[in-house]
């Protein structure tokens, strides 16, 4: 892939008169069809949601600093845990990854924009609508849904109107994701520059192509699950009511058929970002490019056949438990291949550790810990011991925060000079990394212990024996949360034009089409496709 | 507390600790600063514990191997040390090796786990069958066979509200104490048939190695057998609404003689 030789396209200023002048003011954003503007809006939106979800997390950790009920009554506490999950997944991580896709995929494959520019606009502007609906549900009678982000029936059938708002918000955000996914697939399959064969594409495009197929496959399944909740709640159906011939466990099967591919939707593009950064700062090609592509595809296929490992405790037949245990353990093989490939890329490279590289190496290190706990959780008898405890909370924060979020930070620092034309403050970036890395582990590592000792998750109160590790976690959480304000400061300062001017190449070891463009990027790029040899 | 201060050096960060300086391990429940699974008092809980140790050892070995290589590279292959990058970017041999070797390791992990799964799911030929029903937010128990047949009662948490709200000092079994404990004898295979009345709950007792969701309208089962007399404490493990944290499960395992005495008492109470 990185052997790509770029034939610089001839200057083409003479023939872009079919473009109107770049729109300005609010119209530029509301009617945006430019993939860079839409990408920027996606990233801004997801960061706002990250702060909202983070604020909810800090409220949770505040209540859990001591045993007993100090600040929030149990129902409000449950609303916080539920909304924290929904906002982080559907508001922060997924839109941020789509933002990167919007911004970077056309630049990486030499396309002038995304395939469906107006649909792109629509899929972004659905997000604030969904977000307002989710957040607004706190203020309706009964408050937001308190059924957990998984919205398990029949508990979710007991909720007030906040639950209906959450259902509609999930529908809206899901529609946005599907449109985004269609756009990405069509763009990648049809708009690659001449010579940019699929197996020459940067890995980020590959991981997103596969992720987009996952999204199209499973977002409708989630929509079906929550629609059945809606009709059970209001229209007298009994999908999840045993007395009416339904089954509460059916909900879990449908939900996790979406839910497990969903976790790969949130991590595969992150793999792509890290696979771009590690070679750059190792000054060496990505090791095993082809096997990276195959491993990504293998993970995607396996993700469809392992869903019930989230449901070992529901009590399935012994053969079911064995099958889902074996299938789940298999996922560690392609995931392991990826980790080995990253390490082999670094091996005998010429390494430097700018902030994107720090976050990427941090990603490999901490994500792998999350991978190990995933493997441990796959072992059904151990899962029975720690299912629905803090061990699971620790596990999925290791893969979602240290996985997806670290990769998002890495990607932001990596491409920020390209976006803004300025270098960020490297020293502050490094402080941000170390502060984030240490506080993350301080927050979530003790949660493994809590879970092993039997502390159930989604508890507003706990036995005093659990106090010490909860206090460590709360201290870590506040440190982690406030560290992210430093990130905001660094980004805003760079956008305001502080820092050195960035070159087109930006990073010494960077290869690929996006680095052939000037920094900052002109409003339109690759109007004449480059030729890739 | 002293253990933690020594262990993590975080004493200075925990100013509030003094309030719980007297917290002791909870018998049959969590220990202070417990960092691993409960050792367990049943065959299943013990094999969960040893499976977990096995997994920890394997994962630690892999962890050290992989990150040993990575950190060596970080230390040695730096541009600042003048290290020039190599150009290799694939190697069929190692790529096949690190696909096949993990596959073999995974099989090695799956074999002992399979044995435990099969044992765990075998609820046949039980000596005593008890039905546990989850309610919002308490448990109901009913003895379905044997000498205790017909005994049934509701089990409520007894932790008083002023302990929860912070007015009174918290007891050592805070949140994990009930008025009516589930009483079973030692040495007998106890099958617990589990269901729920309203929403999904989960019957979870770490020391017994049991966790089974209670699903309204359906019956599920789990089993345990222990030779150790004692009181074993667990909590509801599936989000079930506002008092999810306040519906503990307490199982008291007694000798067969004491079990008979307990049955007699219960029947006397019922006869009144």
Describe this structure in words.
The complex is a heterodimer of chains A (533) and B (272). Chain A is mainly alpha-helical and 533 residues long. Helices cover 65% and strands 1% of the residues of chain A. Chain A has helices at residues 25-30, 35-63, 74-109, 117-136, 161-190, 203-234, 248-282, 289-302, 318-330, 332-346, 355-378, 380-386, 390-420, 426-452, 467-495; strands at 6-7, 531-532. By secondary structure, chain B is α+β, with helices and mostly antiparallel strands. In chain B, the strands form 3 sheets. A 5-stranded mixed β-sheet of chain B has the order 3-2-1-5-8, with no helix packed on it. In chain B, a hairpin with a 4-residue loop joins strand 6 and strand 7 (210-214). The longest helix of chain B has 34 residues, at 43-76. Chain B starts with a helix and ends with a helix. The model of chain B is unreliable at 1-20 (pLDDT under 50).
Helix content of chain B: 25-40%
Large-scale geometry of chain A:
globular
Report the sheet-strand fraction of chain B. Answer: 15-25%
Mean pLDDT of chain A: 94
Report how far the terminal alpha carbons of chain B are from each other: 49 Å
Could you tell me the number of beta strands of chain B? 10
Mean pLDDT of chain B: 92
Radius of gyration of chain A: 23 Å
Count of DSSP helices of chain A? 15
Order of helices and strands of chain B: HHHEEEHEEEEEEEH
**H/E order of the elements of chain A?**
EHHHHHHHHHHHHHHHE
Q: pLDDT below 50 for ≥5 consecutive residues: which ranges of chain B?
A: 1-20
Cα gyration radius of chain B (Å): 25 Å
Number of helices of chain B: 5
Label the structural class of chain B. Answer: alpha+beta
Strand order of the largest sheet of chain B: 3-2-1-5-8
């Amino acid at each position: 892939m990185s052997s790509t030789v770029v034939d610089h396209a001839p200057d083409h200023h003479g023939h872009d008169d079919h473009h109107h002048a770049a729109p300005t003011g609010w119209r530029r954003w509301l009617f945006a069809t430019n993939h860079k503007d839409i990408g920027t809006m996606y990233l801004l939106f997801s960061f706002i949601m990250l702060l909202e979800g983070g604020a909810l997390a800090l409220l949770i950790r505040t209540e859990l600093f001591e045993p007993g009920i100090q600040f929030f009554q149990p129902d409000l506490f449950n609303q916080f845990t539920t909304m924290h999950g929904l906002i982080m997944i559907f508001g922060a991580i997924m839109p941020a990854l789509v933002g990167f896709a919007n911004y970077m995929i056309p630049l990486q494959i030499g396309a002038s924009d995304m395939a469906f520019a107006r649909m792109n606009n629509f899929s972004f502007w659905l997000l604030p609508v969904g977000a307002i609906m989710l957040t607004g549900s706190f203020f309706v009678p009964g408050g937001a849904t308190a059924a957990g982000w998984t919205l398990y029936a029949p508990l979710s059938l007991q909720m007030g109107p906040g639950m209906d708002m959450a259902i509609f918000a999930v529908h809206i955000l899901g529609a946005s994701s599907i449109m985004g996914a269609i756009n990405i697939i069509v763009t990648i399959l049809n708009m690659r520059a001449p010579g940019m064969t699929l197996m020459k594409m940067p890995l980020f495009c590959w991981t997103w192509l596969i992720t987009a197929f996952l999204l199209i496959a499973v977002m409708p399944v989630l929509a079906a699950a929550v629609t059945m909740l809606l009709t059970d709640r209001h229209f007298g159906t009994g999908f999840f009511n045993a007395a009416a011939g339904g089954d509460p466990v059916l909900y879990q099967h449908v939900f996790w058929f979406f839910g497990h591919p969903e976790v790969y939707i949130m991590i595969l593009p992150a793999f792509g970002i890290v696979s771009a950064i590690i070679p750059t700062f190792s000054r060496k090609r990505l090791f095993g490019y082809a096997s990276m592509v195959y491993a990504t595809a293998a993970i995607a296929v396996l993700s469809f056949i392992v869903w019930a490992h989230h449901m070992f405790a529901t009590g399935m037949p012994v053969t079911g438990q064995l099958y889902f245990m074996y299938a789940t353990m298999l996922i560690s093989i392609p995931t392991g291949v990826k980790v080995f490939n990253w390490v082999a890329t670094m091996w005998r490279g010429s390494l430097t550790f700018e902030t994107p590289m720090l976050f990427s190496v941090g990603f490999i290190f901490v994500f792998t810990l999350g991978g190990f706990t995933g493997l441990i959780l796959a072992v059904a008898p151990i899962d029975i011991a720690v299912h629905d405890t803090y061990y699971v909370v620790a596990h999925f924060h290791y893969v979602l925060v240290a996985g997806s979020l670290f990769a998002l930070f890495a990607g932001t620092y990596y491409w920020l000079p390209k976006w803004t034309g300025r270098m960020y403050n490297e020293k502050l970036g490094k402080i941000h990394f170390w502060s984030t890395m240490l506080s993350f582990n301080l927050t979530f590592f003790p949660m493994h212990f809590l879970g092993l000792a039997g502390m159930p998750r989604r508890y507003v109160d706990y036995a005093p024996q659990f106090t010490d590790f909860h206090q460590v976690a709360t201290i870590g959480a506040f440190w982690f949360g406030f560290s992210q304000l430093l990130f905001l400061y660094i980004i805003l300062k760079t956008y305001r034009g502080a820092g050195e001017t960035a070159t087109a190449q930006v990073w010494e070891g960077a290869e690929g089409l996006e680095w052939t463009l000037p920094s900052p990027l002109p409003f339109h790029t690759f109007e004449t496709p480059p030729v890739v040899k | 507390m002293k253990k933690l201060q020594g262990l993590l050096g975080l004493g200075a960060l925990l100013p509030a600790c003094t309030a719980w300086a007297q917290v002791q391990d909870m018998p049959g429940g969590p220990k202070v600063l417990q960092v691993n699974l409960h050792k367990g008092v049943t065959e299943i809980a013990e094999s969960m514990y040893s499976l977990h140790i096995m997994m920890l050892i394997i994962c630690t070995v892999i962890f050290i191997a992989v990150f040993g290589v990575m950190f060596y590279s970080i230390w040695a292959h730096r541009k600042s040390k003048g290290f020039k990058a190599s150009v290799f970017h694939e190697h069929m041999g190692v790529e096949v090796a690190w696909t096949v070797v993990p596959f073999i390791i995974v099989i090695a992990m799956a074999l002992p786990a399979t044995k435990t799964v099969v044992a765990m799911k075998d609820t046949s030929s039980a000596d005593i069958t008890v039905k546990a029903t989850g309610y919002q937010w308490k448990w109901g128990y009913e003895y379905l066979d044997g000498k205790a047949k017909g005994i049934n009662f509701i089990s409520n948490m007894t932790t008083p509200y002023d302990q929860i709200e912070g007015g009174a000092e918290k007891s050592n079994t805070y949140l994990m104490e009930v008025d009516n404990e589930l009483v079973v004898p030692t040495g007998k295979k106890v099958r617990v048939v589990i269901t729920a009345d309203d929403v999904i709950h989960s019957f979870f007792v770490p020391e017994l190695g049991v966790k089974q969701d209670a699903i309204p309208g359906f019956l599920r089962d789990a089993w345990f057998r222990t030779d150790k007399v004692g009181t074993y404490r667990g909590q509801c493990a599936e989000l079930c609404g506002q008092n999810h944290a306040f519906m503990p499960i307490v199982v008291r395992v007694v000798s067969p003689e004491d079990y008979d005495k307990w049955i007699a008492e219960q029947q006397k109470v019922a006869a009144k």
